[in-house]
Amino acid sequence: MVYLLLTILCTILIIFFFHLLQTRRQIKQLSFQLQRYNREETSMKVNLSTANKSLEDLAIIINETIDKKTESEVISNQMQKELKRAVASMSHDLRTPLTSIIGYLQLINDKNISEEQREEYLHIVLKRTSRLHTLIDNFFSLSTVDSEEYLLQPKKTLLNTLLQEILLSYYDEFTTAGKEPTIHIVEENLFVLIDETAFKRIVENVLLNAIQHSNGNITIELKKEDHCVLFEVTNTIKPDDTPDIKHIFDRFYTTDRARNHGNGLGLSIVQRLMNKTNGQVKAEINKDEFNIVCTWHLYQQV
């Protein structure tokens, strides 16, 4: 009986010993793969075939961590590329009007030019300065809208009246551009829970985009569909000015390579503000027409 017990005990110890050796070998294998990954000698995840449930769970957790690290690196690389592109675009956009302003100021300072020329150059400087102000304002708006500190103050707002006020304030812009928009605002009062400043900025950016890129007609609508309010702007476009819908809301995207008529920030700000105001925005192209639709839910009294 004693010999039988000793035999069983020895067998158990031998099995335990081999199991321990196997576990140690698998841990070394796991450690070796992790070291190679950390030294960037491989991008492969750990591969471990084992009957040990604890080691298998550990390998799964390690691979999940590697996946998250890889995803984080991809996002980081994308952000770095976007930052470099943003800095390059900002530098170009700011340098162009500044160079122009300096050049015309030097001409204005020339005593040999006529008063008529001086007035003409001064008018150009004012226009370039206004463009520079718009650029800086857009850069600032984009940075603040993306920050967590940017808080809205939504309240029950009558969009019919507010939109009419905004359109009236843009009379000079439409006149200067030689555009006479067709406006359709539904008579029914449309209330939305929204921050007024955010709504104004959304409308202004969409209007400016239409004015800058319209090849003729501009149609502005405010209407109701089901339980939603739709602000819609449609403008005709030139064949060589057709935007890429996939990138229309990307920062710094513009169809104008010379960037003479925009910096590609307006619609990007619109998309971010629409998200902040719990709305949706979409852009479509139908033949020679470019269409932007902003949608919010109607305000409902609780």
UniProtKB/TrEMBL annotation:
It holds the Pfam family HATPase_c. Gene3D superfamilies: 1.10.287.130, Histidine kinase-like ATPase, C-terminal domain. Transmembrane segments: none annotated. One of its GO terms (biological process) is cellular response to phosphate starvation. Keywords: ATP-binding, Kinase, Nucleotide-binding, Phosphoprotein, Transferase, Two-component regulatory system. It catalyses: ATP + protein L-histidine = ADP + protein N-phospho-L-histidine. One of its GO terms (cellular component) is plasma membrane. Its EC number is 2.7.13.3. One of its GO terms (molecular function) is ATP binding. It is an enzyme of class 2 (transferase). Its main location: membrane. It is found in: Membrane. SUPFAM superfamilies: ATPase domain of HSP90 chaperone/DNA topoisomerase II/histidine kinase (SSF55874), Homodimeric domain of signal transducing histidine kinase (SSF47384). The keyword ATP-binding applies. Residues 89-284 form the Histidine kinase domain. The keyword Nucleotide-binding applies. InterPro entries: BphY/WalK/GraS-like (IPR050351), HATPase_C_sf (IPR036890), HATPase_dom (IPR003594), His_kinase_dom (IPR005467), HisK_dim/P_dom (IPR003661), HisK_dim/P_sf (IPR036097), Sig_transdc_His_kin-like_C (IPR004358). It comes from the Bacteria. This is histidine kinase. It comes from Pseudogracilibacillus auburnensis.
